[in-house]
Amino acid sequence: MKNLNDKNLSFKTMDINTVLILLTIGLCAGLLSGFVGVGGGIIIVPGLIIFLGFSQHTAQGTSLALLMLPVGILAVLNYYKAGHISFHAAFVIGIAFILGAFLGSKIAIGIDQNIVKKVFAVFMILVALKFLFGK
Hints:
There is one protein chain. 73% of the residues lie in helices and 0% in strands. With 135 residues, it is an all-alpha fold. The radius of gyration is 15 Å and the shape is globular. It has one domain (17-133). The two termini are 12 Å apart.
């Protein structure tokens, strides 16, 4: 895990590994969103914390910034005022999220809904166990 100062992450401070991690988080979030309809928080928040060392608040604020206009403008304003958003990270994740959501929805449409439900349930359990027993 790379530990970044998440409040100072900008395009100037991102190395290629950070950009690739952010794109991977966005693609996975988009895939799962399109595949089982989950929101970004289930992928983006844990991904930013686990792989990039973001604080819980900044991970949540960044996830909300990604969805700011359509969903959470008022929540984003609260996180922004508290200094807990990386708009640069939200932008990079958003690019991959769009592609992932498209691909995930294409995959899910062609699979039996009972399989999709099971994939969703297993993923939520794994994330919950990581948060419960991880650092």
